[in-house]
């Protein structure tokens, strides 16, 4: 058992990190999603009490469990999704970020009732077939198909930076795709993780997904 004063200081440090990052993002008018996929319940609860509302999970069952436990928060789905888990997202997600397959989208929509689920298309801007997402060349066609699915509302684009390569150029590419696809109308541009979010914000991100830099589990920028 850690000494109580150590626990307290961990908690305070978490709140301080969150406050600093949340303040920085608020000043740029960028929404902060706290990625809680590796965080224990106590840490999630600490941030909720500090005022964080938007959390992201990458596993459907974990999203369901946390959304059921804390319905006062908004639970975003950011991970790969198999059709047989679509019901958890249709029922419990506040937003689905990782949409890159039309059959899965229809399966999710079948479980959406009495509401419309905002969806982001995940785009592969990495030029690397091992990373997930829709190929930019078929984005327009995919967006048209998705727009016809009842129960879903296309709200913007999401991407992960290339693992190797020019991160800034990739983010700029996603921004251009968003501008073209939505023709100047507001649409979410969800890009930026712990080690690249400042670049993403400079390139026009409207929503970042931060895990390790908030929870203190990774190197900070
Ligand atoms: C895990 C994850 C994040 C958060 O990553 P950090 O580097 O911990 O900030 C963001 N987006 C997606 C899609 C993830 O899977």
TrEMBL record:
Gene3D superfamilies: Alanine racemase. Residues 14-217 form the Alanine racemase N-terminal domain. One of its GO terms (molecular function) is pyridoxal phosphate binding. The keyword DNA repair does not apply. Pyridoxal 5'-phosphate (PLP)-binding protein, which is involved in PLP homeostasis. Keywords: Pyridoxal phosphate. Its cofactor is pyridoxal 5'-phosphate. It comes from Mariprofundus micogutta. It comes from the Bacteria. The modification N6-(pyridoxal phosphate)lysine is found at residue 37. This is Pyridoxal phosphate homeostasis protein.
